[in-house]
Write a structure and sequence with these properties.
By secondary structure, this protein is an alpha/beta fold. The protein is built from 8 helices and 9 strands. Helix 1 crosses helix 6 (about 205-220) and helix 4 (about 100-130) packs parallel to helix 5 (about 155-170). The longest helix has about 30 residues, at about 100-130. It is globular and about 55 Å long. The model has no long low-confidence stretch (mean pLDDT about 90).
Length: about 260
């Protein structure tokens, strides 16, 4: 197996946070294993940066398909070795209205990608990392995990699930040398957020988020909100009495439903 530098496995690498993380790790001298459905786009990005096969490989997979993403993980181990860090970044954010039947399908798809897909991303690596006694398993959650927002039921619930799942996994791997890191981005300028119909305080550029995330992952931080200002806002939101929070939330714009996109 090539051992020129540490290896990171990143899902959702075709754009946004995933691509920014890939660039940050490449700049730090890491080898890349990048996963996306849009393989051609990711390979074009790698070629444009001058990343040859010895430094970067791209794996096609659908994170919503357990066998597909698990196969990508096994292919990475076979071709590049066991990663030092695995970042389960792939995710979707679509508004929903529970009164609409088609939006229940949106919720099912959101959970399939944001929750089951995250666990399936980690699956091929957990036992091998435990045997080796080292590694980082990184779940990308969101400050949307802190409180449920009108029209965002699927996304908020899925990201709250990411936080709880990673906390459970962290307990399971305690003492093994494998660190589980939960990152909760605030608002980051990506294709996922540009259609939002509400204000986005403390908006970060994707490369700024990636730099802070890289440092938190390297430190093995168990939980981090980025930027920290959104962490303060989230804690204050959590402390608000329900009646007051509900009134404040009513005036907030809602995420576009699939039929509106």
């Amino acid at each position: 197996m090539p051992q020129a530098g540490p290896l990171v496995f990143i899902t959702g690498a075709s754009s946004g946070i995933g691509q920014a993380l890939a660039a940050r790790y490449a700049d730090a001298g890491w080898r890349l294993a990048l996963v996306a459905r849009r393989v051609t786009e990711v390979q074009a990005w790698a070629d444009a940066r001058g990343l040859g096969a010895e430094n970067c490989r791209v794996y096609g997979a659908d994170v919503a398909d357990i066998d597909s993403i698990a196969a990508a993980g096994r292919a990475c181990i076979d071709a590049q070795g066991l990663p030092d860090a695995v970042i389960a970044n792939a995710g979707v954010s679509i508004g929903m209205d529970t009164a609409e039947r088609e939006d229940l399908d949106v919720m099912a798809q959101t959970f399939a990608i944001n929750n089951v897909g995250l666990a399936a991303t980690f699956h091929p690596f957990v036992a091998a990392m435990r045997r080796r006694g080292s590694g980082r398993l990184v779940g990308i959650a969101s400050v949307a995990a802190i409180r449920g927002l009108p029209g965002h039921g699927a996304y908020c619930a899925s990201k709250a699930g990411v936080v709880a799942y990673c906390e459970s996994l962290r307990g399971e791997l305690h003492g093994s040398g494998v660190k589980v890191v939960t990152l909760c981005p605030g608002y980051v300028d990506t294709p996922l957020t540009r259609g939002n119909r509400y204000g986005m305080p403390f908006l970060l550029q994707a490369d700024a988020f990636a730099d802070r995330a890289f440092r938190a992952i390297e430190a093995g931080t168990s939980y981090r909100v980025i930027p920290w200002q959104m962490g303060v806002v989230a804690k204050l939101m959590r402390l608000l009495p329900n009646a007051l929070f509900d009134r404040l939330a009513q005036g907030r714009g809602r995420k576009k439903r699939r039929s509106e996109q």
